[in-house]
UniProtKB/TrEMBL annotation:
Ranges where the NADP-dependent oxidoreductase domain occurs: 19-308
Residue ranges crossing the lipid bilayer per the database entry: none
Annotated protein name in UniProt: Aldo/keto reductase
Cited InterPro entries: AKR, Aldo-Keto_reductase, NAD(P)_OxRdtase_dom_sf, NADP_OxRdtase_dom
Keyword Oxidoreductase (UniProt): yes
Entry keyword set: Oxidoreductase
GO molecular function ontology, one term from the record: oxidoreductase activity
A GO term from the CC aspect: cytoplasm
Pfam families to which the protein is assigned, alphabetical: Aldo_ket_red
KW Oxidoreductase (keyword) present: yes
Length: 334
């Protein structure tokens, strides 16, 4: 199959209707296989998946180096790179807040260009905008990088409606990257209407809630898997959420599709302005996810899915409390 294309927001690039989220290829979900990761990246390109999403802090740069290697020899116009920046790491793999000063942004961009082996980044975005951030200064710095040719488009990540408006008043924003799935629907109340008013697209990550609603997760995490700290994956919360998955499985089986395909197709059905990011790190999982691109859910299908997994039914937050406090999108919603 070959994915079709769509314009990302009113001012963004033309991208594939599904994108590839590469984070899991760099240890965030435990050990990954380098050769399989490279093969998955190549398989994504072969299927017409042009949008590749990463962050300069994934694996302390490992993810960007991996993608840069995979894309060597591929025509630059054949893909778009979406890169998040700003999160600080330490040698032990810990997290140290965010640095969004202009000099830090320029430094991060220079390193990403080198690791990815490219002359420009298609969409560059701060990973988070903590409370008190001078949004106008951050976007203004990015606008300078657009003028200089190092960045083609400015994106945002995990911010609320007010911040989106402030950012868009400084420079056009092509998309907001934010978690959106059957079990994470917070954007529907205020954020999504604001985006649509402003002509800003959505790149939806976590469409399978980090595997929780994939139909494959068995209730355990291995060493090095950050999901072990996520409330949704713990104890009674996990049991309650897996019960939702089983309800979704019945709907999916009746439709002749997999649980993961039902969940991804549901996100895809929420609007042409939403591009699901598939976090596959293996070719078989990628092939399953891509199968959702050909699924058209009927109103009856959507109603059955809604009944199986009602809005707000998930047990537990998607991040630990400290991480949730970093999210501008959550602060504005409360």
């Amino acid at each position: 199959m070959t994915l079709s294309r769509t314009k990302l927001g009113a001012t963004g690039p033309e991208v594939s209707t599904f994108g590839l989220g590469a984070m899991g290829m760099s240890g965030m979900y435990g050990p990954s296989d380098r050769e399989e990761s490279l093969a998955t990246l190549h398989a994504a390109l072969d299927a017409g998946m042009t949008l590749i999403d990463t962050g300069d802090f994934y694996g302390m740069g490992h993810n960007e180096v991996l993608i840069g290697e995979a894309l060597t020899g591929v025509p630059r116009e054949a893909y778009q790179l979406s890169v998040k920046f700003g999160a600080l790491r330490d040698p032990a793999g810990g997290w140290g807040g965010y640095d969004l000063r202009p000099a830090a942004i320029r430094n991060a961009l220079a390193q990403s260009l080198s690791k990815l082996r490219v002359d420009y980044i298609d969409i560059y975005r701060p990973a988070r905008l903590p409370a008190g951030t001078d949004v106008e200064e951050v976007v203004g710095t990015l606008a300078d990088m657009v003028k200089a040719g190092y960045v083609r488009h400015i994106g945002l990540s995990e911010v609320g409606a007010e911040t989106i408006r402030r950012a868009a008043a400084v420079h056009p924003v092509c998309d907001l990257q934010i978690e959106y799935s059957l079990v994470s629907r917070g954007i529907e109340d205020e954020i999504l209407p604001a985006l649509r008013e402003l002509g800003i697209g959505v790149t939806a990550y976590g469409v399978l809630s980090r595997g929780l609603i994939s139909g494959h997760w068995q209730g355990t995490q291995g060493a090095g898997d950050f999901r072990g700290a996520s409330p949704r994956f713990q104890g009674e919360n996990a049991a309650a959420n897996l019960a939702l998955v089983e309800a979704l499985r019945k709907v999916a089986e009746a439709r002749g599709i997999s649980v993961a395909q039902a969940a991804i197709a549901w996100v895809d059905a929420q609007g042409a302005d939403i591009v699901p990011l598939v976090g596959a790190r293996r070719r078989d999982r990628l092939a399953e996810a891509l199968g959702a691109a050909d699924i058209r859910l009927s109103p009856d299908d959507l109603a059955a899915i809604e009944t199986a997994v009602p809005k707000g039914a998930a047990a537990g937050e998607r991040y630990p409390a400290m991480a949730m406090a970093d999210l501008d999108s959550e602060r504005k919603a409360r």
